[in-house]
User: What shape does this take?
Amino acid sequence: MPPPVDSGSWAGRRAELQALRAWTLDGRVAVATATNGFSGGLAWRQDGALAEIDLRRPLGGVVLSIRLDGSRMTVTDGSGASIAGDAADEYVASEIGAPLPVAELRYWLVGAPSPQLPSRETLGADGRLAGLEQAGWQLRYSRYETVDGFTLPARIEIESASTRLRLVVSNWRLWP
Assistant: This one.
């Protein structure tokens, strides 16, 4: 068996963050592309491989509900119509203005790289993740908060060649 990882090191904290299975966050998101923009509320519920994501208009009302169960995505629009499979990815891209890395976001939101893909990580002077490059995206973590013994991101900027997202978390909840 491999030796236990020191949870005081970045490698130990990264492993702990990647192992978080059940959590929720509420916050605000802004998305900008060359042709579109969107801002509003975000509610994310992660329970193992199941993610339920609601994008809301600034004054309320769900724009999109995304359900990701492993690699299967289902999207429900504001009128209640559901789209599944590859068409769901295409629908999200058309509504937001660019394809979103939903599977990787599960890890990026808690301040860790996706363990399935190579990454380049930059740590700040405090030993926390300050920057991450993965899957063609660059992330900058500028604010953290402590929740149930974990230091989790409160502000993240995520960019690709054609898309810029800004996420501000107002509430984290970890489940046992």
About this structure: Residues 10-174 form a domain with the outer membrane lipoprotein receptor (LolB), chain A fold (CATH 2.50.20.10). The longest helix spans residues 86-96.
